[in-house]
Design goal:
By secondary structure, the protein is mostly helical. It has one domain: MetI-like fold. The protein has eleven helices and no strands. The two termini are 21 Å apart.
Length: 297
C-alpha cells in the first residue's frame, strides 16, 4: 500500500472516529445540560420498598425504574444522568485550565530555552515524581472537599502532561524552516511563538485536551469513590460505584452501570481527540487534498 493510500485511509478513519467520539461526547454533554428535564425521577427521592430493583431486562423489574434502583430505592437512570453533570463539569473546566497552564509554560520553555527551560523542566520532574492519584487525594484532603477542590487538584497535577509534550514539540518546530523564514522577514519572537508555532502544535494540543478530559473523569470518580469529591447525597459515578460494591453479588447493576458510563465517556473523548488530530494535521490534509485532485484528473 502506497503512502498516499495509507494517509487517505488514516484521514477517513479520523472522520469516523470524530463522528463516533463526537456523538458520545455530545450525548454526554446534552445529558448533563438537560438532566432536570430528561431524568425520569428525582435522583435523591428514596423508596425503601423498591430497593435494589433490577433493570428492565431482568426478572422482577419495575417498569417505573428502567435501570433499576439502588439500596435506598433511588432511580439509577436518574442518578447516572445527574452524575454526568459532575463528570462533564470537572472534565471541561479542569482539562481546559490544565491545558492553558501547561501549554503556556511548555511553549515558553521550548522556544526560549536557557534558564527558563531548565527551571520549568525541573518543576515538571518534581511534580511527576509523585504518584498522581495519591497526590490528588492529599491535595483534596488539604484543600477540602467539593468540586472546586477536585478541579484544583487535577490542574495542579496534570499541567505537567501538557507542558512536557508541548515543550518537546516546540523544540522540534523551532528548528523548522518556516521559523527561519519568519526570523528572516523580521517577525518578533513573541509573534513567532503565538502566530507560527502555536498553530502547528494545536492538533497535538487538541488530542492532549481530549485525553485529559477522560482522565479528569476517572480522577473525579476515584475521589468520589473515597468520599473526597462532592457531598455524599449528590449523585456521582464514583459514589455509585462505591455503594454498588457492597451489593455486587446481590445487585451487580448498581456498580456495573456507572463503570460502563465511565468507560464509554473516556473512550468517546479519546476517539474524538484522535480523530480531530488526524483531521487537523496539515500533512494529512495535504495528502487528502492531493488524493482528491489525483482522482479528479
Amino acid at each position: 500500500m502506497s503512502d498516499r493510500h495509507r494517509a487517505d485511509r488514516k484521514f477517513r478513519g479520523g472522520r469516523l472516529r470524530v463522528l463516533i467520539g463526537g456523538s458520545i461526547v455530545l450525548l454526554l454533554i446534552l445529558s448533563a445540560a438537560f438532566a432536570p428535564w430528561i431524568a425520569p425521577h428525582d435522583p435523591l427521592e428514596q423508596d425503601l420498598i423498591s430497593g435494589l430493583l433490577p433493570p428492565f431486562w431482568a426478572d422482577g423489574h419495575n417498569s417505573v425504574f428502567l435501570l433499576g434502583t439502588d439500596s435506598l430505592g433511588r432511580d439509577l437512570l436518574s442518578r447516572l444522568i445527574y452524575g454526568a453533570r459532575v463528570a462533564v463539569l470537572v472534565a471541561i473546566i479542569a482539562a481546559v485550565l490544565a491545558a492553558l497552564l501547561g501549554t503556556v509554560l511548555g511553549l515558553l520553555a521550548g522556544y526560549f530555552g536557557g534558564a527558563l527551560d531548565t527551571i520549568i523542566a525541573r518543576m515538571v520532574d518534581v511534580w511527576m515524581a509523585f504518584p498522581p492519584v495519591l497526590l490528588s487525594i492529599v491535595l483534596v484532603a488539604v484543600i477540602g472537599t467539593g468540586l472546586h477542590a477536585v478541579i484544583i487538584a487535577i490542574v495542579v497535577i496534570d499541567w505537567t502532561r501538557f507542558c512536557r509534550v508541548i515543550r518537546a514539540e516546540t523544540l522540534v518546530q523551532r528548528e523548522q524552516e518556516y521559523i527561519t523564514s519568519a526570523v528572516t522577514i523580521g517577525l518578533g519572537r513573541w509573534k513567532i511563538l503565538w502566530q507560527e508555532i502555536l498553530p502547528n502544535v494545536f492538533p497535538l494540543l487538541i488530542t492532549l485536551l481530549s485525553l485529559e478530559m477522560g482522565i479528569a473523569i476517572i480522577v473525579e470518580a476515584i475521589l468520589s469513590f473515597v468520599g473526597l469529591s462532592v457531598s455524599s447525597d449528590q449523585a456521582t459515578w464514583g459514589g455509585l460505584i462505591q455503594e454498588g460494591r457492597q451489593y455486587v453479588h446481590q445487585a451487580w447493576w448498581v456498580m456495573t452501570l456507572p463503570v460502563g458510563c465511565i468507560i464509554v465517556a473516556v473512550l468517546g473523548f479519546n476517539a474524538l481527540g484522535d480523530g480531530l488530530r488526524s483531521q487537523l494535521d496539515p500533512i494529512m490534509k495535504r495528502w487528502n487534498q492531493f488524493s482528491q485532485y489525483a482522482v479528479w484528473i
